[in-house]
């Protein structure tokens, strides 16, 4: 029967189906680990999504937009004016950055699409793209889709936290470097780049005439120090594409509303790619996010304070369970070293953890080109209810007799 084709038969077209640029990436670890969590009834501290939805008023705003017929048909390609204005006002209110909502703001389908479209728009085949390693998993795949060559600069643990080596960054720049892809606050390490580090990056970008794409989706989840947008530094506005999103800030990761802010020229370039990928992004949600961005300061403060307490709870529990803990200054995640537990292979450890104590985590090695560099490190998400974290800690303590 035709439907019983064996795996020995050549695929239709006579060559591997998946194009060569993507074969190295396979399926993301998050799918494997979330399936494992479901199968074993484990607490899933793998993927970074909150287990409690964002503000009720924002949810209601989305319902109202749907009912009132706002955004149910193709919204404008740049995003609805209400949201573009709210994004511009947000950048002024929190970061002192002035933007023209008509020419300097582009709404995207999450930060994920913003990253993809910015890279597709700005990278020519053969261009080198410097990215901080360990990196968010879509970076490598999108650089590859754009035909670019990724050049990792590795953050390393020292004195209880991860740090960027500025000399290494400088040395990574070649005549073929097109751009630096930055992420601060940084997933998975929780590093928040300081003003000094950002100033050095800015000087390098200006000196070598590089563009910078900066992923700032955790801009409001900073527990230590301050988030400083690279675009706010002198001379950086004209060469920086800033990306953020509603998912992490408002605990609606399923809504997929993100945005790009930059100069009119760079926004136009990114929009040129976006128009042929999704054309427009989720209409009614855009109106809801416009309202969310205007929530009072107390909302943003409480979100941060709540997550800080959860960071402290999980970090203390992991330390008691025997892990070395790298205290994150921001984000949803804490990175640990499993070697004090007598383990050295994060992959094997994460695959066995559900059996051993019914908790799921992510091996940091998946975020590295140099997998060996990341081998003994494992990431846990703390954007979960306190009772869930308490239970996870109790289970993890069973690892040490
Ligand atoms: C979650 C995340 C994203 C994706 O954001 P969406 O708005 O959900 O597409 C991008 N970058 C980093 C670093 C993230 O952690």
Q: Any overview of this molecule?
A:
With 401 residues, the protein is of the alpha/beta class. 40% of the residues lie in helices and 16% in strands. It contains 14 helices and 15 strands. It has helices at 29-40, 56-67, 81-95, 110-122, 137-145, 166-172, 195-207, 246-250, 264-277, 283-292, 297-320, 346-357, 371-374, 386-396, and strands spanning 43-44, 105-108, 128-133, 149-154, 156-158, 161-163, 177-183, 211-215, 240-245, 258-261, 324-326, 333-337, 359-360, 362-363, 377-381. The strands form four sheets. Strands 2-10-9-8-7-3-4 form a seven-stranded mixed β-sheet, sandwiched between helices. A four-stranded antiparallel β-sheet has the order 11-12-15-14. Helix 1 (29-40) runs parallel beside helix 12 (346-357), helix 4 (110-122) packs parallel to helix 5 and helix 4 crosses helix 9. The chain is globular. Bound molecules: pyridoxal-5'-phosphate. Pyridoxal-5'-phosphate (PLP) binds next to helix 4 and helix 8. GO terms for molecular function: transaminase activity. This is Pyridoxal phosphate-dependent aminotransferase. InterPro entries: Aminotransferase_I/II_large, Kynurenine-oxoglutarate_AT, PyrdxlP-dep_Trfase, PyrdxlP-dep_Trfase_major, PyrdxlP-dep_Trfase_small. It is an enzyme of class 2 (transferase).
